Structure formats: C-alpha cells, structure tokens
Amino acid sequence: MLFRSAKVAAVGHLASALFCLVILVLSSRSVMDHVATWANSEGAAGVVSGTAIPKWFAAAAIPYGSIALAFRFVLEAIRSWNGKVVEIEDDTLHQLGIRTEDPS
C-alpha cells in the first residue's frame, strides 16, 4: 500500500487508537460487572459453564489487548507524522510468483 501523505497515515492511526480506547472503556466496564457478579455470589455465579474459571478472567483479555493496540497505533502515528515510515508499493503478487514483470 502506498501512502501519499504521511500526515494522512498519522491521522488514520490516531483514529484507530481512539476506537481502541473506546473499546477499552466499554470492555473494562464489562469486566467490572463480571467481577461484581462473581464476588457477590462468592464464586458460585459468573463462571464459565462447566468450569470454575470466572468470566471476568477470560474477559480481561479484551481491555489488555485494546490498550496494547492503542499504544501501537499511537506509536505508528508518531512515526508517520515524523516521516519515519518507509513508503513501499504492494508487491504481493510478485512475492507469490504470480507476476514477474511491471504491468505498466
């Protein structure tokens, strides 16, 4: 993919980071609800069916993943804004051996 402007790429990365932060907030609320259900029932409710694993433990992966992605997108936005991204054209067909010459 060839970016025409590093600034446009940076804005796109920041928009992606913003969406990740929204998912972080929503998933954190969900995890806290699962923790409350599990704690109020003394571990009897709010578990994964057929196991003793609390649902909040499994659901905690979503906020952690969201914050990691948001961090990555912010770093990529900074790199793009500063022009430290190497612009390359998509050469997937050539790498797969499907096209060996320039189509122009």
General description of the model:
The chain has helices at residues 6-40, 55-59, 61-81, 92-95. Helix 1 runs antiparallel to helix 3 (61-81). It is elongated, with a radius of gyration of 21 Å. It has four helices and no strands. It is 62% helix and 0% strand. The protein has 104 residues and is mainly alpha-helical.
Q: Name the average pLDDT.
A: 84
The unreliable regions are none
Q: Indicate the proportion of strand residues.
A: under 5%
Total beta strands: 0
Give the helix tally: 4
Distance between the termini: 17 Å
Shape: elongated
Helix % is 55-70%
Quick overview of this protein structure:
Helices cover about 60% and strands about 0% of the residues. It has four helices and no strands.
What is the topology?
Elements: H1 6-40, H2 55-59, H3 61-81, H4 92-95
Which terms summarize this structure?
0% strand; mainly alpha; 62% helix; 104 residues
